Each structure stands twice: as structure tokens, then as C-alpha cells.
UniProtKB/TrEMBL annotation:
The lineage of its organism: Bacteria, Bacillati, Actinomycetota, Actinomycetes, Propionibacteriales. Residues 170-251 form the 2-oxoacid dehydrogenase acyltransferase catalytic domain. This is 2-oxoacid dehydrogenase acyltransferase catalytic domain-containing protein. It comes from Nocardioides panacisoli. InterPro entries: 2-oxoacid_DH_actylTfrase (IPR001078), CAT-like_dom_sf (IPR023213), E2/Pdx1 (IPR045257).
Amino acid sequence: MRRWRRLASAAWSAPSDPQFYGDLEVDASALLAYQQQAKEVGTPVTVTALVGRAVAHGLSEVPELHNPSRIRSGEPTSDVFFIVATEGALSGLKLSDVAGKSAVEVSEELAEEARRVRQGDGPLDRATRTLAALPLPLRRLVLRAGSWMASDLGIDLPALGVARRPFGDAMISSVGMWGVRNAYSPLAAYYRVPLLVLVGGIAPTPVAVDGEVVVRPVLRLTATFDHRYVDGWHAARFAACVADYVGDPGRLEPAAVRAAANVAR
């Protein structure tokens, strides 16, 4: 059995967790234009990185989304965990303070860290190997206790190879690269994050604009929310913030980036 499947067998139990789902379709014209502008000046940026910035913007604008333990400790941040597909398994990486970085910085850091993950040198590789070697009952116990200590208490666990709050404040996975436009994913209990966003593909889609049907590039995002931390009101505010960023990424980039862009013009 692969290490990931051994880990999954300890993570999942009967489906009783309080989760709810939502999807958002947004006109990606501005997003693609921003991506093209970045490419023309030699700083390519991926759609996943741009969505990461949008999610971080939502976390900053709706701080109630954070795990209550982080709010109490005064640490509501915008750390985002990106799921990465590797050979025969899933892994990932956490980028810190995504709201404070430009989309280009996020894209560059994401590419570099994803390369490390695919080489087997990712931040969770040691933990996965350690847990997969344990018998199932012990694996389940260690996984859940370690999750509580690392995520809720914010404790580093060097013996397991797990850093504090390993999954950040939200998770992102791209399914658009596989040609999938719409998909949902469950939240495992050990993630300890309020939401997981799936990035679908961008496709030409008929939409109504000023009473007329036109074709626009539409990006579909789907999200799974943990109902212990998030309700519909929070989710609606978060969705509005994400749509706001996608509608004009340049306007919501960090102040230093906007200033540099103005000088370039």
C-alpha cells in the first residue's frame, strides 16, 4: 500500500464532519490580462498563484474565517497551503503571508517549492514516511494528536518532521490542469483549516452582460468550508473578496508593486 493511502486510512472515518460546499464563477478577462502583462515584462505568473493571492485577500478581509485558536493567540495570518501532485501521491507546501506578497513572488516561490516537493524534499515528506510506517491504530492516534499539537497549539514537532501549523490558513488545489472545470474535495480532520478551494479550468462561456449574451473566459472555483468555523455569511463575504481580486488583480497587489507599476508606465 502506498504511503499516501496508509495515511488516508488513518485520517478518514465515517462521514460525520460538518462541511458545506459552494462554487463561484468569475469573468477571468482581467485575470488573463494581468497574466499576459506579467509575461510581457518577463515575470510569468500562474492562474493558481493568482487564485492564491485572491484567497489570501479573502482571509485578510474576513478574519473570522481563521481557526479560533489563532484568533485567540493574535495570529490570524494569510498562509496558504498548495496541494501538489507527485508521482503516485499527493503532497504540498505552505507559503507564508501570501497577502503581503505580489502574485509574481507567489508564483516564483510556488514553482520553486513545488520542484522540491516533486523531488521528495517537501516539508511533509518526512512526516508522511514516518506515519506510513506505523501500524494503523497507532498511525491514527499519532496523526490526530500531532495535528492538534501542531495546528491548534502551534507547536513544532521535529520528531515527526512537522512544523507548526503545517497547512496554513487555507488550502488550494488546481484541477484545471487536468481539464476539469468543476470538482469538490473533502476536508480531512487533521488539516485544521476553514476552507479548501479547487481551481477549475478557464473556458469560453456565454454570459449575460448589460442584457446581451456575450462569450467571456470564465473561471470556476469551488470551495469546501468547515462549518465549525464558517457559516454562510462568512462564505459569502469571502466569495465577494475573491471575486473582487479576480476582477482587478493589479488594484489589490501590495502597495510597493502598484508603485513600481506606475513608475514603469
